[in-house]
Amino acid sequence: MMGRVEIFTDDTSWGVHGRTQRALLSLLILRLRVWTPAPYLVRALWPSDASDRALARLHVQIHRLRRQLGGDVVNSSPNGYRLNIRDDSIDAWRFERSAESALAHTGRGGHDAHLVRRLDEALAHWGGEPFPNVDAADVDTWRHTLHELHTRAQEVRSETLLHLGDSRAALDVLTPLAAQQPSNERVQALRMSALQQAGRSEMLPQVYEEARSALTDLDLTPGPDLLAAHAHLLDGHHTFAPPDGAPPAVPAPAPSLERAAALLRHREDELRRALAAHDDDRLSLLDGDGDHPPPAQDVSLRRELAYVLTGKGRHDEALSLLGHLEALHVMHGQEDDRAVVLRDMVAVMALTGDLRRALRLLGEAARMDERTTGTDALLQTVRALILTHMGRLTRAEDCLAAAGRSTSPRDRANGRDLMWWRARSQIDRRAGRHTESVPEALEASRIARAGSAGGDPGPSSLDVACSLRDAGDRTCFAWYRSVIRFAHDSGRFPLAACAHAAAAKAHLLWGDPETAAAHGRTALDLARRCGCWLFAGRAASRLAEAEEGLGNTRSAQFFRREALAAYRRADFPLAREVRARLEGRGVHARDHAGGTG
Asked: Which residue ranges does the record assign to the OmpR/PhoB-type domain (predicted)?
């Protein structure tokens, strides 16, 4: 009954010819489980004919339908007529049942690979336009219901693919759907999210304008879905939205990547103009050469730009910028400022997995701190975080104890308060003290979202998800979804890679290797693209576990080797039991290889 009204039996098929025959069959299928009275069929087929001849015409049509379907298919009784066939032999019923069953899975919090597979199976039953060339009021209602169900299934499938990080597959669905339904604001908003996640932000203004024009043609104005997508994706308001039930906090706007990129272009143009005009004094001021220290605004912009480049996964450029700043501070004897830049460089190296080099820089900063004021506690806290990532919990505890817990205005201003809670939570989580780690992670997340200096809500909220996961609390999945959406919407590829890898581990712990594999593949792809080899190793390791759980032994072996290659590339200090497991030497122990995830 979809695409074409057609009957199949064994290896034979034939079409149902005639408008009345198609309408009669559709009405009987619509009321498959009940007897359909003859007067109902007469009114539906010939609404303008109330004569006794209409009943005779119905008998003729029933006789013709019996000849097409077989004598035992159309049953009759004093109560009317009924088809003697199972509902699963009708494509429209198969689609409706499978789509409703799959969509019911979303009501239980399902955003996983199982849901994608179930929706794929449901959508495979869609054969095209339901009840083509059938004109009957009741059939029109069912046709509309099936169309809405088909659209909803595609929307949920696309949204789930975006959650799993597969923006390309989501766009394959949303692009034709948006063309077919230009006034569907939900579809247009999802398409904009998919374009942003796929790194095609330049298309967003055009997509929004097309959607707005389509609504204008219908005398409509953009509604909340489309306006929210426009503000969120185009205007750069990428704020982290914690899941329901999270402790209330004032959300702090995350740095706008688009705005920072525009500032960079403006700065480059300014330098070119300065060079062209041979304005030596202005160029000296901008570059920090000569006798004058670099202006505070210039330093702030370069650090912001380094932050933006790091978020985009362009670590070499970020380190180059920070190295230039460090050289300027050395030239002008600004050791306090140099210590801050060294800390920023350590943060970038931690993302790439170059933790040994990060510790060396911290050592250099600590030696310099003997001649400066006020950075020792901050550096000790950063060192505690790095050592925690390396699995050296005893040394991390010592560093955190040496740093001391403080709530001074200075510590809040330089972000040490936030880092202290993050380090405390991660140490306790990895040591198995989950009753302590969860509230500590929530406190760090609260501080970050309340607008603390350096208060990036993404990593601290990812800590919450991981603490809940290791404590056996299923609400971790809602936190993972929020962090993943935030990371993709703001173009934070390293954060997205880490979050997907951590979510993969959660799905493995809850016995869902299929969804774990989907998150692992996305994490590995993102980590490779942005050169985060620590996260790449972690993602490949999770992917190997997932493939093993799915029975794909050869794939699991391949991804274990991939994990080792990534860890070697980052010179990451793997624990002996972890290396043995990845090398397939049969040692099974808790994986201490990966910080947050």
From this structure: 13-83
For residue 172, being part of any structural domain is answered with no
For the chain, the domain total comes to: 3
Grouping H, G, I as helix, E, B as strand and the rest as coil, residue 14 is: strand
What whole-number distance in Å separates Cα of residue 501 and Cα of residue 566?
A: 14
Q: What is the pLDDT of residue 121?
A: 92
- Residue 238: closest CA among 255, 260, 259, 263: 255
CB of 287 closer than 8 Å to CB of 268: no
* β-pair type (12-15, 74-77): unpaired
If one counts every other C-beta atom within 10 angstroms of the C-beta of residue 173, the result is 21
Q: Return the residue matching tokens 């919407």.
A: 489
CATH (domain of 291): 1.25.40
Compute the distance between CA of residue 269 and CA of residue 217 in angstroms, rounded to an integer.
Answer: 41
Which residues on neighbouring strands pair with residue 130, listed in sequence order? Answer: 2
CB contact set of 125 (below 8 Å; sequence gap of 6+): 91, 94, 95, 98, 99
| Residue 237, SS3 per DSSP | coil
Q: Strand ranges (DSSP E) for 189-312? A: none
241 pLDDT above the threshold of 80: no
Q: What is the DSSP code (8-state) at residue 223?
A: -
Is residue 235 pLDDT above 60, yes or no?
no
Q: Is residue 500 part of a domain?
A: yes
The C-alpha atoms of residue 565 and residue 94 are separated, in whole angstroms, by 47
pLDDT in tens, 483-534: 888 888 777 788 889 999 999 999 999 999 999 998 999 899 888 887 788 8
Q: Per the structure block, which two tokens stand in for 336? A: 């306090």
Both tokens assigned to 123: 């959508």
